[in-house]
TrEMBL record, chain A:
<feature type="domain" description="Mannose-1-phosphate guanyltransferase C-terminal">
    <location>
        <begin position="291"/>
        <end position="426"/>
    </location>
</feature>
<comment type="pathway">
    <text>Nucleotide-sugar biosynthesis; GDP-alpha-D-mannose biosynthesis; GDP-alpha-D-mannose from alpha-D-mannose 1-phosphate (GTP route): step 1/1.</text>
</comment>
<dbReference type="InterPro" id="IPR018357">
    <property type="entry name" value="Hexapep_transf_CS"/>
</dbReference>
<feature type="domain" description="Nucleotidyl transferase">
    <location>
        <begin position="3"/>
        <end position="209"/>
    </location>
</feature>
<keyword id="KW-0342">GTP-binding</keyword>
<comment type="similarity">
    <text>Belongs to the transferase hexapeptide repeat family.</text>
</comment>
<comment type="function">
    <text>Regulatory subunit of the GMPPA-GMPPB mannose-1-phosphate guanylyltransferase complex; reduces the catalytic activity of GMPPB when part of the complex. Mediates allosteric feedback inhibition of GMPPB catalytic activity upon binding GDP-alpha-D-mannose. Together with GMPPB regulates GDP-alpha-D-mannose levels. One of two paralogs (gmppaa and gmppab) that may have redundant functions.</text>
</comment>
<keyword id="KW-0808">Transferase</keyword>
<dbReference type="GO" id="GO:0005525">
    <property type="term" value="F:GTP binding"/>
</dbReference>
TrEMBL record, chain B:
<dbReference type="GO" id="GO:0009298">
    <property type="term" value="P:GDP-mannose biosynthetic process"/>
</dbReference>
<feature type="domain" description="Mannose-1-phosphate guanyltransferase C-terminal">
    <location>
        <begin position="252"/>
        <end position="360"/>
    </location>
</feature>
<feature type="domain" description="Nucleotidyl transferase">
    <location>
        <begin position="2"/>
        <end position="235"/>
    </location>
</feature>
<dbReference type="InterPro" id="IPR005835">
    <property type="entry name" value="NTP_transferase_dom"/>
</dbReference>
<dbReference type="GO" id="GO:0005525">
    <property type="term" value="F:GTP binding"/>
</dbReference>
<protein>
    <recommendedName>
        <fullName>mannose-1-phosphate guanylyltransferase</fullName>
        <ecNumber>2.7.7.13</ecNumber>
    </recommendedName>
</protein>
<comment type="similarity">
    <text>Belongs to the transferase hexapeptide repeat family.</text>
</comment>
<dbReference type="InterPro" id="IPR045233">
    <property type="entry name" value="GMPPB_N"/>
</dbReference>
<dbReference type="Pfam" id="PF00483">
    <property type="entry name" value="NTP_transferase"/>
</dbReference>
């Protein structure tokens, strides 16, 4: 019997996803037409022995999350529950805190995944790999290859090429260690909790020691219960014959910024070709012209002279007028694009309006297409004092007047613009 | 009567358009600049026009032969081997201009205005002096040659070229009437083969009068001013011959459209747009404050403001062009690009957006 745990973080996490994360928790942001989390859940529910999916995070219970959970339970016919941490406990602390829930029913193994990754989820392959490597209690990390320079932004794994054992693990090193990086998707057995428990004990002892010397104790990061899988567990387990890496060359990307949401959409839309062809729009009579892969929600209202794609997702109730061009963009629910407007490399927020002949354009931050191992950059917002050109984001309920251009800008929610803007954050 | 038009120079400020076509033949509001001037001169009684040229004179010659026939006048070309400024051409054309005692017009070829030639002539004959210089009032005098003169007597104190501090807002409008007597007094030292500017002393102390001209005036020698001049000219067309302008649904303000142009559905054109012969505008195009030259093609849903689209150029779908973008002849702009203030040389293909103003060679 199997389970899956998805770590969904909380409001203090995902700040790079603002202003979109003001409206909806990042794990529920639609990527290729469905909430980010749904891709994880779909992959998990395909496994025949999957009995339960647990979401762990520190969001307060909210409407969207509850609605998502009940819909997902109905659609996938599997138990899905949200376990709320009382504080941010780190990637290891959360699962340790809820270990009883995870272990109830005695699963032989369980997956742990970060919500903010986009992946082909080779879960069956990871299960087979685990049976063939180490003993019945081994743990598996999903790894992929990055280029040398970018590997420094991830957890780096040094492996024994013959046995696939993890010999060394470093999270975000400052010098090059390995080009195999941690994808944030793991397969654990119940034994993992012994190792986390050991670290927890040690932390408590350290805390005790420090408390006799310092009075303050309330800073969250100094809690004993905050445990990070990567720095605290993997680094210690490396080279002990317990941790293995399963390397994949299928698609994978982090989703940290809005730009990476568009890139992830592209990856999933490509996958729909084989997994969900019904989700891809086709060129039909009376419908808009599509190029490449396009997702259009059935309730969207689109003029037949519009041209959409490649890599476009259109949400519920969106209205698109005559002669509109949308490319490499996500149009969220209820937005309206008036005649002849042009939206490129942008995310148009819920309920926003774009006037006639307006141009909303961003700069893609895609990985170098000539490098098969290049990953999307997590760009800093500013460089050399200037805003780095990136995807244009319109928050919810933003109104763009006719005939203006909004270029490489971020517009916060509920804003009515009255002129063109370039390379700016508009509060 | 005769007129001398100072065509001179290479028209470098109106590049890239002047890389293909000599400046006097560039169409301003669907008619070559030179023709605006020549037709006005002919209306005032001029029967012989002399063009002082130094660049691409063969092309000009051919075109002028055709106009000679059409207008029933004589057009001569006075060749400068190098640009000679203002005095030089006068000296060079001296023979032609002084064969009788009639006064003659002299005109800077970049000037577009509501040409007051008949009035100027009357004024000149009335005051009986040797020369009449036209001045006009402008908002930004530091771009031009300022004339400081006494309002009542018309006596000229001095000329100041492009003053950095405010001297006066009256500038030399580039239009003159001179009598042959004045021309004979120009001292010219003619080198064996060349006449150059420094050899001519243009003596401004001949007796002259100021004619103050108050209607629209523009030096259209550079793209920004070309477009401003177009707006002024179209406004004057609305006042004097409104039937020439195109009106109706989809047309805003003053719009001039050649009858052979084709305009698609759901376009909004204007205000202040000139569409040349054989131009095609596809569906859903929005054009404001632009000149679209002969044979150009603007594809659907594009948005243009303050641009000059060169002959036979092609602008793709969903393109946004603004901020005095000038496309030379036969330029192709690919679909979905953003072109901001680009100056594009002829026969160039643009495949990437130009978000900040620059020159594309």
């Amino acid at each position: 019997m199997l389970k899956a745990v998805i770590l969904i973080g909380g409001p203090q996490k995902g700040t790079r996803f603002r202003p979109l994360s003001f409206e909806v928790p990042k794990p529920l942001f639609p990527v290729a037409g469905v909430p980010m989390l749904q891709h994880h859940i779909e992959a998990c529910s395909k496994l025949p022995n999957m009995k339960e999916i647990l979401l762990i995070g520190f969001y307060q219970p909210n409407e969207e999350l509850n609605r998502f959970l009940s819909c997902a339970q109905q659609d996938f016919k599997i138990s899905i529950r949200y376990l709320q941490e009382y504080a941010a406990l780190g990637t290891g602390g959360g699962i340790y805190h809820f270990r009883d829930q995870i272990l109830s029913g005695s699963p032989e193994a369980f997956f742990v995944m970060n919500a903010d990754v986009c992946s082909e989820f080779p879960l069956p392959e990871m299960l087979d790999f685990q049976k063939e490597h180490g003993d019945a209690y081994s743990f598996v990390i999903l790894g992929t290859t990055a280029n040398r320079k970018q590997s420094l932004n991830y957890g780096c794994i040094v492996e024994n090429e013959q046995t696939d054992e993890v010999l060394h693990y470093v999270e975000k090193p400052s010098t090059f260690v390995s080009d195999i990086i941690n994808c944030g998707i793991y397969l654990f057995t119940p034994e993992i909790f012994q190792h986390i428990g050991t670290v927890f004990q040690k932390n408590q002892q350290d805390m005790l020691f420090y408390r006799t010397r310092l009075e303050e104790q309330s800073n969250g990061w100094h809690r004993a219960e905050v445990i990070r899988l990567e720095q605290d567990i993997f680094t210690a387990l490396a080279g002990q014959g317990k941790l293995y890496v399963y390397k994949t060359d299928r698609f994978w990307s982090q989703i940290k910024s809005a730009g990476s949401a568009i890139y992830a959409s592209r990856l999933y839309l490509n996958q729909y070709h084989t997994t969900h062809p019904e989700r891809l729009a086709t060129n039909r009579e009376g419908g808009p012209k599509t190029r490449g892969h396009v997702y259009i929600h059935p309730t969207a209202n689109i003029d037949p002279t519009a041209v959409l794609g490649p890599n476009v997702s259109i949400g519920t109730g969106v209205t698109i007028g005559a002669g509109v061009r949308v490319r490499e963009s996500i149009i969220l629910h209820g937005a309206t694009l008036q005649d002849h407007s042009c939206v490129l490399n942008s995310i148009v927020g819920w309920g926003s309006t774009i006037g006639k002949w307006a141009r909303v354009e961003g700069t893609p931050s895609d990985p170098n297409p000539n490098d098969p191992y290049a990953k999307i950059d997590s760009e800093t917002l500013f460089r050399d004092g200037k805003l780095t050109p990136s995807i244009t984001i319109l928050g919810c309920n933003v109104n763009i007047p006719s005939e203006v251009i909004i270029l490489n800008s971020i517009v916060l929610p509920h804003k009515d613009l009255n002129r063109s803007f370039k390379n700016q954050i508009i509060l | 009567m005769k007129a001398l038009i100072l065509v001179g120079g290479y028209g470098t400020r109106l590049r890239p358009l002047t890389l293909t076509v000599p400046k006097p033949l560039v169409e301003f509001c669907n008619k070559p600049i030179l023709l605006h001037q020549v037709e006005a001169l002919v209306k005032a009684g001029v029967r012989h026009v002399i063009l002082a040229v130094s660049y691409m004179s063969e092309l000009l010659e051919r075109e002028m032969r055709a106009q000679e026939q059409r207008l029933g006048i004589k057009i001569s070309l006075s060749h400068e081997k190098e640009p000679l400024g203002t005095a030089g051409p006068l000296a060079l054309a001296r023979e032609l201009l002084t064969d009788n005692e009639e006064p003659f017009f002299v005109l800077n070829s970049d000037v577009i205005c509501d040409f007051p030639f008949e009035d100027m002539l009357r004024f000149h004959q009335q005051h009986g002096r040797e020369g009449t210089i036209v001045v006009t009032k402008v908002e930004e005098p530091s771009k031009y040659g300022v004339v400081v003169y006494e309002g009542d007597t018309g006596r000229i104190h001095r000329f100041v070229e492009k003053p950095q501090v405010f001297v006066s807002n009256k500038i030399n409008a580039g239009m003159y009437i001179f009598s042959p007597a004045m021309l004979r007094r120009i001292q010219v030292r003619i080198d064996a083969n060349t006449i150059s500017e420094k050899h001519c002393h243009f003596i401004w102390n001949f007796q002259k009068y100021i004619y103050f001209f108050n209607c629209f005036w523009m030096d259209i020698g550079q793209p920004k001013d070309f477009l401003t001049g177009m707006c002024m000219y179209l406004q004057s067309v609305r006042q004097q011959a409104p039937e020439r302008l195109r009106t109706g649904p989809g047309f805003l303000g003053n719009v001039l459209v050649d009858p052979t142009a084709v305009i698609g559905e759901n376009c909004t054109i204007g205000p202040n747009v000139t569409i040349g012969a054989g131009v095609v505008l596809e569906d859903g195009v929005r054009v404001k404050r632009c000149t679209v030259l002969k044979g150009a093609h603007i594809r659907s849903h594009s948005w243009l403001e303050s641009c000059i689209v060169g002959w036979s150029s092609s602008v793709g779908q969903w393109v946004r062009m603004e901020n005095v973008t000038v496309l030379g002849e036969d330029v192709i702009v690919n679909d979905e690009l953003y072109i901001n203030g680009a100056n594009v040389l002829p026969h160039k293909s643009i495949a990437d957006s130009v978000p900040e103003p620059r020159i594309i060679m």
